[in-house]
């Protein structure tokens, strides 16, 4: 094969990976249990090609999760975190919730497939930003200090995940959940008299 | 076969089911990903026998979950729910958390396998009791009423599940989590000024 031929093959492979990741992101975002065959079909690539790039469902879900988390991380980095920590938390929660709504099913698929260590890694960027804000709220005396920061971060994550599940069950609407997530987290963090 | 022979066979089958359920409850409580083969081995029954009673992992996890939920429901029914709804909530949360700690991994295994409808059914008994208490707290003016009861119940469940995950990760100890679950839920439910 010529050098050009090798380069063309590599470009093809990269394009196929992108097609598979795009299709997988879209399908996983609505159905966390979608099969690899359905993803291959939607991407317009053969099963052999898909398995060539992603030897297992777990490998594909991991790649999709990492890509979703990267774009999520970029979106969250634009949130204004200055000023009163409670207002900043409200803004960060709203942005996080919008992204959770959009990619919630990917997170559910990831939960089924990724190891706790992988889950920790994909949450690391957003978690660091949230951590810094909770810490600032504690330092400024508006968030309670009688609980470990790690617990408060776990609570925020639990409320967001619980909100996804509640919307999925039809217990609350996605729009109402924006306010409910904010009010619940702020109440859990507030200094008590 | 004689009538006695049939009766003996039935008794054998019942005993095997109990042996499998006991082994599965014990093993799933420490490792939600334990295999059917390991469960059969621990129960001292053959794989064919196990598959005869439980045609799939999901069927076994469902049976174990239903049994755990039944005994959990019985344990929770002994909790004193009279008096100040906040104190009653603290007692109910502590009992629920002790049971979550003990059977948390079974719940995680159930999460992976059961459908949302099955999960709803297995949580129904404990959920009804919690629902009645939250409602009483709202009626008596000590729990906030600017959130749907269903959201408050979802939050309580999310905090309990989040606590299991936090203990599993080593973020907090199981003993500390008792207080943290209580304080977080009571803060989330409290009427704000």
TrEMBL record, chains A, B:
It comes from the Bacteria. Gene3D superfamilies: Tetracycline Repressor, domain 2. One of its GO terms (molecular function) is DNA-binding transcription factor activity. Keywords: DNA-binding, Transcription, Transcription regulation. It holds the Pfam family TetR_N. InterPro entries: Homeodomain-like_sf (IPR009057), HTH-type_TetR-like_transc_reg (IPR050109), HTH_TetR (IPR001647), Tet_transcr_reg_TetR-rel_C_sf (IPR036271). Residues 35-54 bind DNA. Residues 14-72 form the HTH tetR-type domain. PANTHER family: HTH-TYPE TRANSCRIPTIONAL REGULATOR BETI, HTH-TYPE TRANSCRIPTIONAL REGULATOR RUTR. This is TetR/AcrR family transcriptional regulator. It comes from Micromonospora zingiberis.
């Amino acid at each position: 094969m010529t050098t050009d031929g090798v380069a063309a093959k590599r470009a093809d492979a990269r394009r196929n990976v992108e097609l598979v990741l795009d299709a997988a992101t879209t399908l996983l975002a609505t159905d966390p249990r979608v099969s690899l065959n359905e993803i291959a079909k939607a991407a317009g690539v053969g099963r052999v090609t898909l398995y060539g790039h992603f030897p297992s469902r777990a490998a594909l879900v991991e790649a999709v999760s990492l890509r979703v988390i990267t774009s999520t991380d970029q979106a969250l980095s634009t949130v204004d975190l200055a000023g009163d920590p409670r207002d900043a938390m409200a803004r960060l929660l709203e942005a996080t919730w919008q992204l959770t709504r959009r990619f919630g099913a990917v997170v559910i698929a990831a939960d089924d497939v990724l190891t706790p260590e992988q889950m920790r890694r994909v949450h690391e960027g957003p978690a660091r930003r949230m951590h810094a804000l909770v810490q600032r709220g504690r330092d400024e005396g508006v968030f309670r200090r009688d609980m470990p920061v790690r617990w408060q971060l776990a609570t925020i994550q639990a409320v967001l995940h619980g909100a996804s599940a509640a919307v999925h069950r039809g217990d609350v609407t996605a729009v109402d959940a924006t306010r409910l997530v904010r009010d619940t987290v702020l109440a859990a963090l507030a200094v008590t008299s």
